[in-house]
Amino acid sequence: KPPPRVVFEIGSEETWKADLETKPATFAKMGIKEYFTFDPTGVWTGKWRKKAQLLGWSLGADGQPHEMAFAPDSRLWSYELDSWLAVQTDRTLRLFDIKDRPRLTGEEAKEQKILRLQERLRELGQNPDEL
To answer: What residues have CB less than 8 Å from 25, skipping those under 6 apart?
Structure first.
């Protein structure tokens, strides 16, 4: 069975040091193409705290993990997810497409579909609330 292409870790008191210092190499050896770790609660210390709340590594042609460089707006690009990863002001992680549109969760996509259908019904002269 092939390994996943992307792995995400959420920082915790128990695992944060391994998430940052040993897991990039471990996952690279497994053939995982991208590894991201996210610290929404501020458990990282030292040099890691100074870097960012989100860090990523990609598997290089040499088989080694290479820390990803940040875009000027502090986002990381995932080639495997075809998405920007960005930490939001509420300390959540959000994905955006190449045109800066948020990638929707399943629930958000359902809600948008319902809103589009309601609008279309209104355009056709039907009140969706009366159906």
So the answer is: 64, 65
Contact 54, 87 (CB under 8 A): yes
DSSP conformation class of 121: H
* Helix or strand (DSSP H, E) at 36: strand 34-38
Q: Does the model's pTM come out above 0.70?
A: yes
Element spanning 10, H or E = strand 6-10
Q: Which residue type does 69 have?
A: A
Q: Give residues with Cβ within 8 angstroms of 24, minimum separation 6.
A: 35, 57, 65, 67
pLDDT tens per residue across span 34-91: 999 999 988 988 888 888 899 999 999 999 999 999 999 999 999 999 999 999 999 8
User: Among 9, 66, 55, which residue's Cα sits nearest to residue 33?
Assistant: 66
34 burial class (0-12, 13-18, 19+ CB within 10 angstroms)?
A: buried
